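Lab notes, practical 5.
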Amino acid sequence: MNLKPAWRRYALFAVLALTSNVAAALEPVEVQRWQHDLAVYRRTLEARHIRLYHRISKTEFTAALAGLENALPRLNEPQIVVELMRITRLVGDGHTHLAYWDAEHHRYPIAFRSIEGELRVVRTTPAFRQLLGSKLVAVDGMAASKLQEQLAPVAQVVENTQSLRRQTANHANVAEVLYGLGVTRQPRQARFEFVDDVGKPQAALLTALRSDDYYEQLSATIAPDTVPLGRKVAEVSNRLWLSADPAQATAYLYFAQYPSFPEMERFAAKVQSYLRKHRIRKLIIDLRENGGGDFFVGLSFAHQMILVDELDWNGGIYALIGPTTFSAGMSNAAQFRQLFNATLVGEPTGANPVGYQDMDGFVLPHSKRRVNYSKRMYRFDAPSADGLQPDKFVPTTWADLRRGVDAALAWALADRR
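Output from the prediction step:
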């Protein structure tokens, strides 16, 4: 991702933002508060980020902030937030981001996934179930391709083309982001146009939901959750559990979230006991939905697995990875390849194996927006600007997803070494 063209376009984006929607501009006192926030933003990042100017120069960063500060009297709140997201992206590491989701925000009742260059509806509310699987065509008249272009330089938690694809889809339903970009005409209502696989068009006037309501109400999904190999045999939560088929001497670990150290120790002990008792030979660790946490917790799991002599250590351990595999999820994937002789299966990760991690943050005093930043530099594999690479590349296709086929898992289950 070339940052210099993004910087050179910054002034153009700011000018367009001034005229792209009609919400009231800030009052003078609000301008002063944002000026203070921007000063705190720069001063704190410079003091705490391990190496703030590793991708963009100090001169460019300072000029971008000055451009935003000068434009403050003509901008509204959503526009300011979007422009600050754009500036934060210039830093160039995914752990440095403006965490807009920590403040109250709204999402339209459809979740997208980027597949083969298109935004597909993969989750929604029961009222809009008919939209599942359809391709986004336009939002308030803006073509989906143009929408993705607009979102690309402002999407947060981006480190390479994989996480850019993932996060562009994740930002495509955020009402404040779309309005701040001038994509939508109203703050929380927009007309979405779709087309299905046979070319039938559909349109819906959608109203954005509060984020808490959004996560509670989106129960209709293109791919219902399943438990591979039949049933769960150990579980911490619906984000960390083990299923197994003793007859096939195979176990599947769904590892999407990190528990506390004590919880992981107890869980790993149960997993170790089960693997030994049932003489499990093949272990598949699914990290595809693991967006990060504490990789040392993952290593505590690894410590107990290393003791299971019954596993096939000569090719019987697999780790599934993809664009959502980020931060500690990527770190553990690289470590499992080293410690377990694991075969990585799937798509490249959204985080790079050499880069800035170990996130911390601070809150801007007036707007209460949280800004996160990187504190450490880690080297988990050979340098790559496009993620940790799988040993066996198995892409996610729309044809597979539509039929409920998990191609990466199927490959790992079928592999015989």
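Observations recorded by the TA: Residues 1-9, 14-20 have pLDDT under 50 and may be disordered. The first helix runs from residue 3 to 8.
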